[in-house]
Amino acid sequence: MTAAEYLDTVRRLPLGTLQDLTAGFPFAVLSPHPDDETLGTGGLISAACAAGQRVDVIVITDGSGSHPRSQAFPRQRLIELRRTEVEAAGSVLGLAPDQLHHLGLPDTQAPMSGPAFDAAVAAIIAACTKSGARSLFATWHGDPHCDHQATAQMAKAVRQRIPDIGLWAYPIWGWHLDPLLQLRDSWPRGLRLDISRHQASKRAAIFAHASQTTDLIDDDPQGFRLTEATLGLFLGPFEYFLKVVDE
Q1: What is the DSSP letter of 225?
Q2: What is the torsion angle, in degrees rounded to the nearest 10, for the CA atoms of residue 164, residue 166, residue 125 and residue 86?
Q3: Which of these, 117, 128, 153, 196, has the minimum number of CB atoms within 10 Å of its CB?
Q4: What CATH homologous superfamily does 3-243 map to?
Q5: In whole angstroms, what is the distance from residue 98 CA to residue 122 CA?
Q6: 55-61 vs 27-31, strand pairing mode
Q7: Three-class secondary structure of residue 230 per DSSP
Q8: What is the number of alpha carbons within 13 Å of residue 69 lying toward its C-beta?
Q9: Quick one: the chain helix, strand, coil %, rounded to 5?
Q10: How far is C-alpha 232 from the geometric centre of its chain's CA atoms?
Q11: DSSP-derived secondary structure letter, 166
């Protein structure tokens, strides 16, 4: 099938509830960069926090690759800024500081295998075990970004070691695939979550990532910026979650 056919099916997934996705138990979100958790699952997080349900967010990379040529925000300062932003966004959504975890891997270098990959998987398992997470949400393996694909691979490795954990995927950059690209995936299965009651909180949380949504860092012409068109994909009344099945 083409990417256009696949994504059109995702947009028409049946409506589900927070209960359908998590059974009311604690869950964890894997975020490749400090902002993906808000873009893809901000409504889910806000809904869970409002319901008194435990959510842990595990940020895989340090976000240092967004503005690599900035003089005002050299690498360490940018890392600290991105961490401050994800904490501010988490607070808007209802997360306490101890519900945010940072693996601190270099941006664009999240591993797909090897000792660093194993260490990341072990850290994710430790966080899930401590919180009692029964389900895990990670970026879709079809997202065309190396860190997003590595995150999806880590999630599958976690499920191999914790077979009972539910695994869901959320698309970020997958929405921008070439419509004619041929995908080998099976037809998508999953749920659409109505987040209309939490749209305002999600929007505020997205814009808490000011380095990604404004000209806060203005001395790197090639720096990353979420455009109005890109943000429009994440400001609507639904979030989309794909059920990851064992291959």
Answers
A1: -
A2: -170
A3: 196
A4: LmbE-like (3.40.50.10320)
A5: 18
A6: parallel
A7: helix
A8: 7
A9: 45, 15, 40
A10: 16
A11: E
Helix (H, G, I), strand (E, B) or coil at 70: coil
Structure tokens at 15: 């409506």
pLDDT one-digit tens code per residue, 11-57: 999 999 999 999 999 999 999 999 999 999 999 999 999 999 999 99
Euclidean distance between CA atoms 101 and 162, whole angstroms: 20
Structure-token pair, residue 218: 């203005």
65 token code pair = 């690759």
Token pair belonging to 102: 């940072």
Of 114, 166, 236, which is closest to residue 122 (Cα–Cα)? 114
Question: What is the amino acid identity at position 165?
Answer: I
- CA pair distance 70, 85, nearest whole angstrom: 18
Question: What pTM does this model have?
Answer: 0.96
| Residue indicated by tokens 């999806």 | 152
**How many whole angstroms separate alpha carbon 150 and alpha carbon 116?**
11
Q: How many residues does the chain have?
A: 247
Residues 6+ apart with CB under 8 A from 149: 112, 139, 141, 143
Task: Give 183-225 pLDDT, tens digit per residue.
Answer: 999 999 999 999 999 999 999 999 999 999 999 999 998 899 9
Alpha helices in 12-145 (DSSP H): 18-22, 36-50, 75-93, 114-131
Q: If you ran DSSP here, which 8-state letter would residue 178 be given?
A: -
CA dihedral 77, 78, 84, 86 (to 10 degrees): -160
